[in-house]
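Ligand: guanosine-5'-diphosphate. Inputs:
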Amino acid sequence: MSTRLSDLKEREEGIITHIGGSGAFKTRISEMGFVKGQKILVIKNAPLRDPIEYNIMGYDVSLRRKEAENIIVEDEDSENINIDYKVNSSIGKAFQINGSSEKKIRIALVGNPNSGKTTLFNLASGAHEHVGNYAGVTIGTKTAYFKHNGYRIEITDLPGTYSLSAYSPEEQFVRDHLIKERPDLVLNVVDASNLERNLFLTTQFIDLEIPAVIALNMYDELESTQSELNHKELGAMIGIPLIPTVGSKGIGLSNLLDKVIEVYKGECQTSRRVKIHYSLDLENEVYDLSNEIEEKIPGLHHFPHRFIALKLIEGDEEIVDMVRSVDDGFEIIEGASKARERVEVGLSEKIENIFIDARYGFIDGAL
Ligand code: GDP
Ligand code: MG
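Predicted complex:
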């Protein structure tokens, strides 16, 4: 039976089937994991009192009653839940890293807050032959240099983020770093005990086509829950190798850095470009637009054409501005806006939510 999330009582569970409210609300809430198909449990719901506490994807989250009224759920045992994710992954090409014959690797540490980035950063820079360490000028970035197996590694600890949509200063900062600095490799630190939520960020740099290695950190916590994870298979599906680590105990660091070097040298079988399939309508628009981009504005800051097409359709301001500044850019932006309208009308959904649903769909599929 369908009901409003706010009407579920304590200990009751539901599966999200619809999210109403303003576009901004839907986007914010989706990024917290409130997406179609997701199971949600009520922890605390005192009649007429705010907030209501929920558990979703293993996290406790508080919502105001007014917010929870916008979310429609089906009782867990309801039979006709129809969730149709048109998402899967496809096999892509291996990465080719420029200058990979050089023995110098630039790494960006990226991950959700509290996933263990700083712990791994300190461990890596402290346990190795020290070359240098300085504090950055912005939002507390730190860079360290050290050597591992004859490679000079430059590692930058970035602020924690859940997304790269550029809504918060941290997101903006991490995104700029990835786009402008173009590190050779992203070292994505994930909390193994909260994979679904942590991998949301991962899907965002999959589109950027930057090679990555995942530190499957807090592996001790995953083990203590007795959950089983076939991380090799998961890695093969998302095109990114995962290495179990326990940062606080120094476990797995050496394996992690060995893997970084292997990926950098192009010798890792797991590391490859993977495409997140968005809905069919959107994919068709992206296909046409990427071809147009390739024809009219090739080589734009070395971004993948598909990435530019996706971001233009999504209406990403920064990428729109960048394209506007080049010849023929305006025409491409116009085309992208029309494509966005067609997709939104076709799916009766705001574009942000179409993207977020597809990303969580990709993760759910892989997991
Ligand atoms: P950051 O926000 O990503 O930089 O995370 P921190 O490095 O500050 O780590 C957050 C907390 O998690 C700290 O208290 C760490 O000691 C702890 N921590 C880091 N790695 C692990 C791990 O592998 N297992 C466990 N149990 N705790 C960890
Ligand atoms: Mg930190």
